[in-house]
Design goal:
This protein has 457 residues and is α/β, with parallel strands linked by helices. It has a domain of 310 residues: Crotonobetainyl-coa:carnitine coa-transferase, domain 1 (Rossmann fold, 3-Layer(aba) Sandwich). The chain has 17 helices and 15 strands. The strands form four sheets. Strands 7-13-12-11-8-9-10 form a seven-stranded mixed sheet. Strands 1-2-15 form a three-stranded mixed sheet. A hairpin with a 2-residue loop joins strand 4 and strand 5. Helix 1 packs across helix 2. The longest helix is centred in the C-terminal third of the chain and has 24 residues. The protein starts with a helix and ends in a 24-residue tail after the last strand.
Length: 457
């Protein structure tokens, strides 16, 4: 299946404006894959390869030899699931107690209730306590379209079950299909980038205002090659089932951008950032006074990379959403159901839309940095889970049928990660770049304990 991975890498890399010939220098290793109706392993490997090519190009743009890139498809598959192996403790659950798929009067719907306010919104609409059996009984009295609309109107998250054909005919499906994989716009010039010689991205400052998976995966990748990543969260936010995966290599602080003092701190951070990665819904940052023009004014030459759930055009451009909801909306779960001959939705074997989008965001960041090195100009790149879903749907072909080999001790990176909730091992990195090993200087940490400031160069 390495031919598939190489072809998908070429599609992704050229969509980012990269030289198609560079893909010839990527090697794919590893047998088997995640079993699915879709070539999940190859799509994920391609996204990782695009991000790795971004590192290689960035290294070459600094006057060094273009390094060879290798992506291990087996490790790529494993990193889509979990990269951490706790020692003597257990990971908290990722999914809320009532999150999941439910039959309505006329089809299926997914309720995404992992955050307390989203769970409360769904329960208000349904008139029930957050008990799975009670929720199921209440959902069964609704039509799927009406319930989806009601939950969204209440501030919650839900998605009705659609086929790929239904999605292709839907106004939002049509809008997303017309979008590029990555929207790229050039911005104004900024000062020269400053580097430390030790690692490819050492000396670069990445301000991370993302949540859950896609954005944090992008910045985790950048941290793995030496970038200083500072994650900012609001004071009332936590993701206990995810932080051991997503905060690796980062420092984590908290700011409330509704407060004047915290806004002033954020402005200072942004003014001294080289990269800003964010996952606010369209218009949300504008409402806080940090629209694209303001960000570019604060940080000339800024490489600005963002994502949303359902795309940047069409009637759902501002709709809140997550990977699992987009799978339901776009027909991925329906295709999985037909492939498995099941009687209910069948999602991907991992949150692959998040992971693939995350690595594409990392690649977009690195391409932006390379352009800034060449021209001095910043850039703005936008991606979405829904457009990544089209990338996956376009790759639909022969399903993966050969499973991954079982994990062994040799698959783990050396050393123990020490953290407040217990020691752990980490899988070996899925990407190898000659002369630029992927490693993290900081262990994963809880959200919020660090000061909201940059380390000295």
């Amino acid at each position: 299946m390495t031919t598939t991975a190489a072809a998908l890498t070429r599609t992704a890399w050229t969509a980012l404006g990269g030289d198609a010939g560079a893909v010839d220098g990527v090697a794919f290793t590893g047998e088997g894959g995640l079993i699915s109706a879709y070539p999940v392993t190859d799509v994920a490997s391609a996204a990782m390869a695009a991000a790795a090519l971004g590192i290689a190009e960035f290294v070459a743009a600094r006057g060094e030899k273009f390094p060879r890139v290798t992506v291990d498809r087996r490790f790529a598959s494993m990193w889509l699931l979990h990269s951490i192996r706790p020692i003597g403790w257990k990971m908290p659950p990722t999914w809320g107690p009532i999150a999941g798929d439910y039959p309505t009067r006329d089809g299926w719907i997914k309720l995404h209730t992992n955050w307390p306010h989203h769970q409360a919104a769904a329960c208000r609409v349904l008139g029930t306590e957050p008990v799975r059996e009670s929720v199921a009984r209440a959902v069964a009295t609704w039509g799927k379209t009406e319930l989806e609309s009601a939950v969204l109107a209440a501030g919650g998250c839900a998605a009705e079950f659609r086929s790929a054909a239904d999605w292709a005919a839907h106004p939002q499906g049509k809008a997303v299909a017309a979008e590029p994989l990555v929207h790229i716009a050039m911005a104004g010039e900024g000062p020269r980038l400053a580097f430390a010689p030790a690692r490819p991205l050492a000396g670069l400052r990445v301000l991370d205002c993302t949540r859950v998976l896609a954005g944090p995966i992008a910045t985790r990748f950048l941290a793995g090659f030496g970038a200083q990543v500072l994650r900012i969260d609001p004071p009332d936010r936590d993701e206990p089932g995810l932080v051991a995966e997503t905060t690796l290599g980062k420092r984590c602080a908290q700011l409330d951008l509704r407060k004047r003092a915290d806004r002033a701190i954020f402005e200072t951070l942004l003014a001294h950032a080289d990269v800003f990665v964010h996952g606010y819904r369209p218009g949300a940052l504008d409402g806080l006074g940090f629209d694209a023009a303001r960000r570019a004014g604060l940080a000339p030459g800024l490489v600005d990379v963002c994502l949303d759930a359902y795309g940047w055009s069409g009637p759902w451009a501002t709709r809140r959403g997550f990977d699992s909801l987009v799978q339901m909306s776009s027909g991925i779960a329906h295709t999985g159901m037909r492939w498995r001959k099941a009687d209910k939705p069948v999602s991907l074997p991992a949150q692959a839309l998040d992971h693939v989008t995350g690595y594409l965001m990392a690649a977009a960041t690195l391409r932006g940095l390379a352009r800034r090195l060449a021209s001095g100009r910043g850039s703005q790149s936008r991606l979405s889970l829904a457009r990544t879903a089209k990338f996956l749907n376009d790759a639909l072909g022969e399903p993966a049928t050969v499973p991954l080999e079982p994990e062994t001790e040799a698959d783990l990176a050396p050393g123990i990660e020490a953290r407040s909730w217990g020691p752990a091992r980490r899988l070996a990195p899925p990407v190898a770049i000659a002369g630029a090993p992927m490693r993290w200087d900081l262990p994963a940490r809880a959200l919020g304990p660090d000061p909201a400031r940059w380390d000295a160069p």
